[in-house]
Amino acid sequence: MTDVRKRALVAGAGAAAAVAALGLSGCGKKEEPVAKAPPAPPKPDPLKAAWVYVGPVGDAGWTFAHDQGRKAVEKEFGDRVQTSFVEKVPEGADAERVIRDLATQGNKIIFATSFGFMEPMLKVAGEFPQVKFEHATGYKTADNMRIYDAKFFEDAYLAGVIAGAMTKSNTLGFVGSFPIPEVLRNINAYTLGAQSVNPKIRTRVVWVNTWFDPPKEAEAAQSLINAGADVLLQNTDSTAVLQTAEKNGKYAFGWDSDMSAFAPKAHLASCIVDWSNYYKKAIKDVMDGTWKVERTVWGVKEGQNALVKVSEVVPAEIRAQVDKLSAGLKDGSFAVFTGPVMDSAGKERLPKGEVASQEWRDKVDFYVRGVEGRIPAGK
Amino acid sequence: MNEVALLLAATIASGTPLALAGLGLLLNERAGVLNLGAEGMMLVAAIAGFATAFATGSDMLAFAAGAAAGGGMALVFGVLVIGLNTNQYATGLALSIFGGGFSAFVGAGYVGQRLSDRAQWALPLLSDIPVLGPALFRQHPLAWIALLLCVAIALMLYRTRAGLILRAIGESPESAHALGYPVRTLRLLAVVAGGALCGLAGAFLSVVYAPMWVEGLVAGRGWIALALTAFATWRPARVLLGAYLFGGLTMVQFWMQTAGVPIASYWLAMLPYVATIVVLAVISRNPTWIRLNMPASLGKAYHPGH
User: Fold this and answer.
1) Which residue among A18, A59, A249, A314 is least enclosed by CB atoms within 10 Å?
2) Is B112 an interface residue toward A (CB < 8 Å)?
C-alpha cells in the first residue's frame, strides 16, 4: 500500500496527465519516459520489456546494477523497445501479482532479478505462454522461462589477490549473508585468491543472515576487525562494511557496483556486475525470434563481471597480476576453481588439474582450507 | 585484553540508541500513555537527522532535527490519544506503519548518499588508559548523554515533586485531576518528551552508528525498546541495563562467530533476544514488584469529568 501511495505522491508532483496514466496502470508501476516521438503509426510497435526488482533502484548495489542494464537496453535499441520496472517488490505473494500484472500489460519479456522470484515467476509463466520470462540466479526453467547468472566468484578471487597482498595480519574478513553455495563460493574464491600470493592467509567469516541491514553489517564488520581481520569483503548489498573499514583505517572492497566514493581510503577495488550485455542479448533474441530456453552464466570473459577502480595503494606488480588473471579468465587459460581444492577439514574436493564444472560450483557446501570456523547449517 | 575493550566499546555504542529510546518510552508509560509508534518515530527521526547532517554537516543540528521530528510525531499521537481519546494501541501501531512508509518516501533520494567524514571522539588522557580508555572514553558524546539521562530521569521520578506528579497521573489520573493537576497537558508533555528521545535515538542510528540512510534502517529497535521498558518494570536503571545487555549480546554473537565457537549462527542470532528477556524477567520476577511499578492506568484514556 505504501508503494501505491508513494507513487501517487511522486506523480502528483509531475504532470496531471502522468497522474492519470499512472493511476490506470496502477500497482506502483513506473513507466520510463521513452523519447517522445511524434505519433508515427506506420512504425512497428516497440517491444515491451519489464524488470522486477527486489530493492530500490537507488540501493547503490544489486538492484542499481540491474537497472543500469535496463538503461543500456534502452540506449541500444532506442524506440524499438519500451522498458519499465517495478522496484521494491517483496519476495512472495506480491511478486506473483506484479509479474502477472506486467504480463497482462503486454510485456513480451519480463526479467525477475531476485532468487525469491523463482516460484512466482514459474507460476505466471504457465499462464502466459506467449511471454518470455527470465529469472536471475535461479535454477528452475519452463518452456518460456530461462535463467541467467553471473560469476561473482571471479570478482571475489581477483579481490582476494589484492587482499592477500595488502593484509598485514594475514587475516581476511568476510561478511556473509546466507550460507548458500553462491556465497560459500565467493568466500572460497576470495580465500584462494589471497592464498595465491600469500600462503599464510586465514579468512574469518561472520554471518548476518540478511542481504541488507546496514547497522548489522557494520557491527559484523567491526567484530571482524576487532578479531584481527584487516581486509574485508562482503556478500551483502550495502556500503556499510566498506564504511566501517574506512572508520577503522582498514581495507575493504565494493560489491555489486563501484563503491569507491563511499570510502576513499579503505576502498581497494569494487567487484562489479554488468548485466547490460546479457539484457541486450535477451532482447535481441526475442526480436529475432531466436529466444530459446537455456541457462546463461557469464563472468569476466563476457564482460559481465569485473574488478574495477583498483586503488592507487595496491602495488604495481599486484595490479599486473590482477590484469593477467583477468586476461586468463577472458581467454579461458585460467579458471578460479582448479584442482587441487582442499576443504577446511583437509578433504580433497577437486582433484589436481581438474577444472570445476558448473555442477560442482552449484553444490559448494564447504570452506576451503584457510577459512576458519564451521558453516552454519541445519544439518 | 584489547579484544575485551573493543567488545565493551561496541556494546556501549550498540546499546545507546536502545537506551535513549527506552528511557523516552519509560517517560511516556510512567505518565500512563503507551506509544507503540516508537519504530515509526525513530525512522522519521533517522531520515530527518540524516538529511540535516547531509545538508549542514553538523551533528548537533542533525540531533536537534531528529529530536524535533520524533517530538513532532509524538505530538500528533498525543493530540489523537489524549485530546481525542483514540485507542492508544491502534494509534501507536498506525504511527509505526505511517513512519515506515513516510520515511521511505522522504528518504528515497538519500539512499546511497554518504555523509562527510565524522569526527572521532576521544577524551584526552582518559582515552589512553589501557582497556578502559578505548572502551569508555572514545564514545560519541550521546553515549554519555544517555547515561546521564538515565540518572536524571531516575532522580526526577523518585526524588522530585515533578516526578511524583508524573507518576501520579500514570497511576491515578482521577486523583491527580482532583488535586488540581492538568492531567492531559502533562501527559502530552511526557509524550512529546518521550518522542523527542526516540527521535534522538533514531538520529544517532542514521548519523553516528550506521552512518547512512536506507529504508527500514531502524530494523526493529523501536520494538525492542518498547519491550525493554516492560521487562525492566519501568525502572530507568534496568532499562539501561537491558539496553547494554542487548547491545552487548548482539556483539558477543558476532565475536563468537569470529572466534569459531561451533554453534550455528542462527542460534547465536537469537541470543540477544532470549538472554535479555530471561535476565530481565528473572530480576523482575516478583509479581508484587511488577504491580507496584507498572503504571496502573497504562494504556487507558483519561476523560476528565467522567
Assistant:
1) A249
2) yes
